[in-house]
Write a structure and sequence with these properties.
Rossmann fold, 167 residues, 6 helices, alpha/beta
């Protein structure tokens, strides 16, 4: 059996902790080996939960990027407007990237990320987890079996409140 993928959590908010949870459920597949999070409580929570050594616990992603590569990938789940710079920096360091949606908030930043991953031949996966939620899967099933008639249009609007943009 192959060694587990070693990942660094960049942004240990709700989404970052949700992705990290996979390591608890499947420790043979994923190991969390570092964390960067400005909020002390969540940084310490992740460090303790995943037994991350003190020298791999950081306040900022920039501090992680100063070190030699020590993991296979990074999971970037910072605030939306903060995705581009760490994605480019970690691609340049040779890390594969799991990037929370949206990829970036501007076209130029999306292009920067794309160019960096191509230039460094690293994998980039942008998470769109809403398509895998139980209600989305059920809706897809109902549409495919024709149970709800002919679908002409679907508008899926994520109810984003003010707290979604709070640092």
């Amino acid at each position: 059996m192959a060694d587990p993928v070693r990942a660094i959590i960049i942004g240990a908010g709700q989404r970052g902790r949700a992705y990290a949870q996979y390591a608890l459920e499947y420790p043979d597949a994923l190991q969390i080996v570092g964390v960067a999070e400005p909020q002390t409580y969540w940084r310490e929570h992740v460090a303790t939960t995943y037994a991350i050594p003190e020298d791999k616990v950081f306040t900022t992603w920039e501090d992680v990027a100063k070190l030699e590569k020590f993991a296979d990938c990074v999971i970037i789940s910072t605030q939306d407007s903060m995705h581009a710079d760490p994605a480019v920096a970690f691609a340049d360091l040779g890390y594969h990237i799991l990037l929370e949606k949206p990829m970036a908030v501007t076209k130029d930043d999306c292009l920067r990320i794309h160019e960096a991953t191509k230039r460094n031949n690293v994998l980039l996966a942008v998470c769109h987890v809403m398509r895998c939620t139980p209600y989305s899967l059920k809706l897809r099933e109902l549409i495919q079996c024709g149970a709800i008639g002919k679908v002409v249009n679907i508008q899926h609007i994520e109810p984003v409140g003010f707290w979604h943009q709070v640092n």
